[in-house]
Design brief:
Chain A: This is Transmembrane and coiled-coil domains 6. Chain A: Keywords: Transport. Chain A: InterPro entries: ARM-like (IPR011989), ARM-type_fold (IPR016024), Armadillo (IPR000225), Importin-a_IBB (IPR002652). Chain A: One of its GO terms (molecular function) is nuclear import signal receptor activity. Chain A: One of its GO terms (biological process) is protein import into nucleus. The structure holds 2 protein chains of 2 kinds. Chain A is mainly alpha-helical. Chain A has helices at about 15-35, 65-75, 80-95, 95-110, 120-125, 130-145, 150-155, 160-165, 170-190, 190-195, 200-210, 215-230, 235-245, 245-255, 260-275, 280-285, 290-305, 315-325, 330-335, 345-360, 365-375, 380-390, 395, 405-420, 420-425, 435-440, 445-460, 465-470, 475-480, 490-500. Among the domains of chain A are: about 60-165, no CATH class; about 390-500, Leucine-rich Repeat Variant (Alpha Horseshoe), CATH 1.25.10.10. Helix content of chain A is about 65%, strand content about 0%. In chain A, α9 (about 170-190) packs parallel to α12 (about 215-230). The longest helix of chain A has 20 residues, at about 15-35. Chain A is elongated, with a radius of gyration of 28 Å. Chain B is mainly alpha-helical. Chain B has 9 helices and 4 strands. Chain B has helices spanning about 5-10, 50-60, 95-105, 120-130, 130-135, 155-165, 220-230, 240-245, 250-260, and strands at about 75-80, 90, 145, 155. The longest helix of chain B has 14 residues, at about 220-230. Chain B is elongated and about 85 Å long. In chain B, strands 1-2 form a two-stranded antiparallel ribbon. In chain B, strands 3-4 form a two-stranded antiparallel ribbon. The chains are: A mainly alpha, B mainly alpha. Chains A and B meet through α1, α2, α6, α8 and α9 of A and α1, α2, α3 and α4 of B.
Amino acid sequence: MWSRRQGHFRPTVCGVEELRRRRREQEAALRKARREQQLVSKRLLREDAPEEAGEGCVAAILGEAEVQQFLRQAQRATEEKEREGALVSLRRGLQHPETQQTFIQSVWVVWGRGELGLMRTLVGLLTSNQALLQLEAARCLHELSHSEQSTIAEACLPATSYLLTYLSGHSSDFIELCLYTLGNLIVESEAVRRQLLPQGIVPALAACIQSPHVAVLEALGYALSQLLQAKEAPEKIIPSILASTLPQHMLQMLQPGPKLNPGVAVEFAWCLHYIICSQVSNPLLIGHGALSTLGLLLLDLAGAVQRTEDAGLELLACPVLRCLSNLLTEAAVETVGGQMQLRDERVVAALFILLQFFFQKQPSLLPEGLWLLNNLTANSPSFCTSLLSLDLIEPLLQLLPVSNVVSVMVLTVLCNVAEKGPAYCQRLWPGPLLPTLLHTLAFSDTEVVGQSLELLHLLFLYQPEAVQVFLQQSGLQALERHQEEAQLQDRVYALRQTALQG
Amino acid sequence: MQLPALCARLAAGPGVAEPLPVERDPAAGAAPFRFVARPVRFPREHEFFEDGDVQRHLYLQDVLMQVADAPEKPRVPAFACQVAGCCQVFDALDDYEHHYHTLHGNVCSFCKRAFPSGHLLDAHILEWHDSLFQILSERQDMYQCLVEGCTEKFKTSRDRKDHLVRIHLYPVDFRFDKPKKNRSPASAEVPGDSGERSEGEAMEICSEPVAASPAPASERRTYSHRSVSKLFLKHVLNVCSVLRILGCTWAAALLILNSER
């Protein structure tokens, strides 16, 4: 349901263990890339001819002479089928990094000799008025765009104006191919992005987003997400995106209902996340109704969890949570009509359903969910009251053992509730809260303990009966364990005094 | 557990909880305690986002459509393109769709050139086949920039090309911006580019000669009608049948109309 491509892994002769190992390696590589802020991923559309399905491997690597020969054949053979066949052979050869390398190197070498370069020949075929030849040339270009070599993007610069021009056409498969190719080139090189902006990529995308074809929309979302991920996006790209009609269309794609396509929604949710976390002009998005759309989408996601139609749901939930959390920090949220656009109590219920889902399926997303809960409850007595009236304190406490980060966030949310005063603390007492705090005081992580101390302080202040029980349950000893810790000393001492005087 | 209660709440209508009274004691925030309830924001590159970002990229990288899973292109008994003059044959609907849109979708009815988009076709018809355009362009800037979203206009096609190259970084030999030549449209326009097919060639599927006929047949009338009438007065439509017989273009028709006033 969530992705038409889900489960389309390469049918492989290696076992499950090998797959897991590859997956772990892939993940480790991605983490490293992210820490170096070099996260580049590309998408590949590949439809091999049926004859290849039975074979274990793809066509052979091509040398420079063979590449040139195929290209010449594509231009000059008399039979159309021959010309198409030449490009098909070239495309298969281009599945090999070695052939890609050959092609790229030849681009620069041949230009030096004054001949028509390989890329220019390919672009000539891309713009030919023979439809199927054009399609095959586009597929060759797409294979090239997926190459891991960083020089590929600049080698493809001559093609970009045509790729953009074709976005205004009507052939949906072709447009999809052009969009994925553009997305791959965009993510690779700032030179390509510097060229695409004056070439009019933003108006081209704004026109193309009105296409009724789901495959085109998903491809467009992908290309746009690559553009928005660029380092220079906040200054150079996002302002023109926000000035166009793209934001309204993006939000439309995220509206829950029968027309919501999960694959499309995932792409545009990530686009929105990149825009919002860059903090260029979030009030504009709030003005377009981003908060209410995303809030309704959150309810929809919770509904999907309840119906257990949740395969891959975390791919959409993650950016939605991020967008909502960041938007809630905008001052505009408070001033729109004098009230927050997001006040519906169901949002809290939906969020907890999602937290349960993450707990079971994707614990790494718990911090993101709790981040939203913090931003919802921090300045909202109403949402804090909802937490209490919907009996959500205990489920919240059950998340504590997951990790230190999660523990700190759970305790922070509880502090949000407790700091609102006695009426709130009364509802936290008696109950599992105090025993839990005695337990977290035994943690070694300083931040967890520090947040526990803050919560204890609020509890003692607004619910003094708790002090006695605290003392009876060896609370002082739990405190004294930390009295040497620099970051905790002052608070430990203050709490001790309160407890002894109380 | 709590889940049924939450499900029930979700199923019920929207609502805002009536908040309990808020009553803060100043001692709450007194040193050494420092907790303040506040919403938190994370910027783009924050490490908080690492896990989710990695998941996102694993998803991107896993997208590899395999023929074993993707549906095969449905094959049908061979059929020919139905457009008059085109004898291309197909055995798959997808191929036909692309062929149709590329070669017959945005075709100039005067010279048979095919264009990738309606936008470029409109510009072509105006600039190549409309005598009124030529007249007006002597007095004002009429050559519109080809990039969608750019509203600049120029006196000559040369000026426009300069703009495309300098401002929009388009290639100097952009194929959809050939300057108009006085010879017949079927002749090769750009010498020296060995191997490159001239964009001015007729559809090469059949060797039917192309005539730059100013009196197109009625079915092809619809192509030029679509673009020109958008730009000129709609009342021209009322005299279309008369002028078709006279063998005039729309713009010439307008000229006749205006001169009759």
